[in-house]
Amino acid sequence: MANVTFRIWRGDKESGEFQEYQTVVTEGMVVLDAVHQIQAESANDLAVRWNCKAGKCGSCSAEVNGMPKLMCMTRLSDLDLDRPVTIEPMRAFPLMKDLVTDVSHNYRAKQKIKPFKPRKPDNADGSWNMAQEDVERVQEFRKCIECYLCQDVCHVLRDHHKHDEFIGPRFFVYNAALEMHPLDEEDRVEDLKKSQGIGYCNITKCCTKVCPEHITITDNAIIPLKERVVDRYYDPVKMVLYKLMGPKKKKS
Amino acid sequence: MTQFETVEHDVLVIGAGGAGLRAAIEASAQGVSVGLVCKSLLGKAHTVMAEGGMAAALANVDERDSWKTHFADTMRGGYYINNWRMAQLHAQQAPDRVRELEAWGAVFDRTQNGKIMQRNFGGHAHPRLAHVGDRTGLEMIRTLQDHGIHQGIDVHMECTVSSLIKDGPRAVGAFGYTRELGKFKLFKAKAIVMATGGIGRAYKITSNSWEYTGDGQALAYHAGADLIDMEFVQFHPTGMVWPPSVRGILVTEGVRGEGGILKNSSGKRFMFDDIPDNYRSSTADTPEEGWKYVAKTDANARRPPELLTRDHVARCILKEVKEGRGSPHGGAFLDIAWIKEKISKSEAHIKKKLPSMYHQFKELAGIDITKEPMEVGPTTHYVMGGIRVNGESQMSTVPGLFAAGECAAGLHGANRLGGNSLSDLIVFGKLAGEHAAKFAKENSSIHIDNELVDQACQEALAPLDSPAGSQANNAYEIQYELQDLMQDNVGIIRNEDDILKAVDGVEKLKKRATTVHAPGNRQYNPGWHTALDLKNLLLVSEAVARSAVVRKESRGAHTRDDFPEKDDNFSHVNTVLRKQDDGNMQVVQEEIPPIPDELQQIIEDNK
Ligand SMILES: Cc1cc2nc3c(=O)[nH]c(=O)nc-3n(C[C@H](O)[C@H](O)[C@H](O)COP(=O)(O)OP(=O)(O)OC[C@H]3O[C@@H](n4cnc5c(N)ncnc54)[C@H](O)[C@@H]3O)c2cc1C
Ligand code: SF4
Ligand code: SF4
Ligand code: FES
Known about the structure:
The complex is a heterodimer.
Chain A: E1 2-11, E2 16-25, H1 31-41, E3 61-64, E4 67-70, E5 85-88, E6 95-97, E7 100-101, H2 104-112, H3 132-142, H4 149-153, H5 155-158, H6 169-179, H7 189-194, H8 206-210, H9 217-233, H10 236-245
Parallel strand pairs in A: 1-5
Antiparallel strand pairs in A: 1-2, 3-4, 3-5, 6-7
Helix pairs in contact in A: 3-6, 6-9
Chain B: E1 4-14, H1 18-29, E2 34-38, E3 54-55, H2 67-77, H3 84-103, E4 118-119, E5 129-130, H4 136-148, E6 154-157, E7 159-167, E8 170-178, E9 184-194, H5 215-222, E10 227-228, E11 233-240, H6 254-257, E12 261-263, H7 277-280, H8 287-295, H9 310-322, E13 332-335, H10 346-353, H11 355-365, E14 374-383, E15 386-387, E16 401-403, H12 420-442, H13 450-465, H14 475-489, E17 493-494, H15 496-513, H16 526-550, E18 559-560, E19 573-579, E20 585-591, H17 597-605
Parallel strand pairs in B: 1-2, 1-9, 2-6, 9-16, 17-18
Antiparallel strand pairs in B: 3-5, 4-5, 7-8, 8-9, 10-15, 10-19, 11-14, 12-13, 13-14, 19-20
Helix pairs in contact in B: 1-4, 1-12, 2-3, 3-12, 5-16, 10-11, 14-15, 14-16, 15-16
Residues 58, 144-150, 169-170, 173, 210-213, 215, 217 of chain A line the site of one iron/sulfur cluster.
């Protein structure tokens, strides 16, 4: 049991500042518990998103001592409690209030991506056969809980504000999940290059480092997608073939 | 009059979990305009947390499985007070609904020959749960969400419905506020589907999130709909018990499905000690047989007692704790690490099959489940009761108001089998969407009385307008007191005195709640939101307690130590709650319609 100081960002679109709160921390508490305790004790109107409290819904993203984190999975015992713990909203998105940001960019970005288009079913009951090895690659990407922490750290969004031209790492993961889905027959390579801005990514791997689901965003999703773009647009032999034969799905 | 924006849809779906999304997709496919409202962001509803899987008799792993066995298992699990028509439709349609998810992009784990993999779960005779590791709910909600956003559905996220509007007997609208700015919205609709989930926040120890305040049940009740079976609240046997801040967070039954065993403080596997008669013939005699069942090495092996129904397992754990054989923090030990005696590379196997459990214990409790046992104890999980619906159309007793998913009642009877909720969502979500669209087409003209809307505005503003007060009318404080009251008096084991204490306590809290005050303004203000949710939470708590009083027997999830046995007087009745004209809650018991012979025969054949 210890009395700990928290510096929490309070404010809205117009203005804001850090405010200090004290609360008693007990064994096993996570950052979100402290926020809730403060909310109940002394700041009833402190805005924060959460749902599952178990790292499954991706609602409680924030920056804790400057690091992008899920508040429900960040244990206070892992932080230095002798100094105030700083909690602020994700900085890559416009602020709504306190710790809550406007993440609608992400919903718009997803809407632009061509949906899943399966090949004809393999069996009469409308089902398909797929081997476990072939689905595992995609299952990694489908673990994404849409916490948008990767979007928050990516400099293309955070510092360069390319929200209109660049869909961000989460949606490269999403594209990869579709493109590498054993049943999918859609072609998203042109969109990736043209409207989704994959070229802006310079493989800094910051996104991979913060992913709470440990998805290897850069190596497993972005780089293979970039290769497809390169194959299509910059490999002279493949470019000619493409012009002659049109989009052809590559399943690898 | 306070300002509000009016939005019109043919069908309005309230709730964007599995049930709401599936309903919206179906209504849209029927060619009507559809609106979808949810309290959180899209994709964050409770469904995302489901772990173990969805039950469907695909017969991919055991070809003896069929809808009939699934039907019989569901009825037995529900102690035969289920809506048999729903249990039948559910068992028959679940396989198609699961395959449909695959057609929309879901990527289930596979069998050796490339089909959808199925795992064992409590109360299911065969491996039946289609799954993706232990994050099946995420797969379901993401698949429905990603498919749904291309179907022309208007999504209103972070918007909470605070009342329903009626035109005569019929539901024609919903009134709510946006969380961000606190702006009011009036949704006019020809048909409404409730898909708001459960009530778990009424209890202190719960696996449920802040959203689960029984809104759908309460709103429907106030609109005149019947609620049934509210005494049946499922306490999942395995929630985390340590550290305190994670108490209640779920440990999936999948752990036991993969071979996890329960032990007490002296290392004894206590589940073999008490096996209910109706499951004796289907339960293993020895640990060895139980393992063969789990490992699927012997088709005739019977399941281990850890996979008995949830109500029973929860009671057994509680007994160990009460009799002083519990784990250090008041639970039992759940051990999956032991399977290293049986299989090589067990650590990798556990991480592959139960990745999020591995993660959850590692990060939140500092425990490596591939090496050490977990400490677990019962946690409030699911409500079997809810809005009474017609088994086929999913319409409530209020014309134009439909319900699906956890907020609807009937399918699960006195106790839900694991995995039967996710399949419930897609089967009855679809049916509700289909019938709501049909209703909207057939009943197009609606009228909304502005006075009712004004009243809804006033009610929503009350906590902000009421005078600032003391802790006594702080919404959080009342909520905590309510959670303690319910936990202590209408928990896993109940008796008349305690339940009446809860009834009385709820009445007192209701009075205090009328003057509840929320500081701050309408902009993203959780204090205000909590104050509004509180009314619903109080209503459903009253519903649970009042229903629990009249069922003077023990059945399924409802255990009374003053009436420890099942009683035939109650074996054919539902407890029905109805709002009377004077505003009081009427409790009556109504006969369940007799089951057709051919369905009864299926039950007999599977005994
Ligand atoms: C940890 C956990 C694990 C589980 N595992 C399994 C499992 O393995 N298998 C299984 O079958 N079941 C499982 N369950 C149960 C199952 O997940 C739920 O019963 C099911 O997901 C409920 O789905 P739903 O569509 O009815 O509601 P939810 O998914 O809860 O959605 C409710 C929706 O309603 C909205 N809402 C609520 N009130 C309002 C309002 N007033 N205004 C507007 N919107 C509102 C919410 O925002 C949300 O969008 C599990 C449950 C938990 C908690
Ligand atoms: S690797 Fe690319 S997407 Fe990821 S953070 Fe760096 S620039 Fe952004
Ligand atoms: S990829 Fe990882 S960091 Fe990015 S949204 Fe998904 S889970 Fe979050
Ligand atoms: S609350 Fe769900 S991830 Fe933190």
